[in-house]
Amino acid sequence: MKKMALFCALILNFCIANAADIEVSNAFAKATPPHVKNSAAFMDIKNNTDKNIKLIAASSNISKTAELHTHKHAEGMMQMIQVDDIEIPAKSEVSLKPGGLHVMFMNIFSPVKDGDKIDITLEFDNGSKVKLKDVIAKPVMKKENMSKH
Hints:
The structure is a single chain. By secondary structure, this protein is α+β, with helices and mostly antiparallel strands. It is built from two helices and ten strands. Strands 1, 2, 3, 4, 5, 6, 7, 8, 9 and 10 form a ten-stranded mixed β-sheet that branches. It is globular, with a radius of gyration of 17 Å. Residues 4-18 and 144-149 have low confidence and may be disordered.
């Protein structure tokens, strides 16, 4: 019995240490107009470890499916493309932002309104999961409009 308690304590300590390895800040979701079927989430992800970590999956309570995406300039146009993962280098931070890397929520259950709160779970290749609660939705300006401000 003591061995089982020690084992459980070790596992718990590993999970707590893992949670501190990755910090997520400035998270927000994209509010959507009516009839739009997709939304997105943006955030800063900090890797406090000595090893590169990859964001490999995400999920949310607003859609059945979430994908990792980026934008790429091809044939004179910006195109959004799905990526397998998003690497966060050791002792570094990566920003997921409009016009760049982001989490895409496909076929949302209902429109996401300004001020709505959503839950997001991020999964990493080191086995860590980060659960974000009550991420606020807000309108996101298109990239070309942002440069005018």
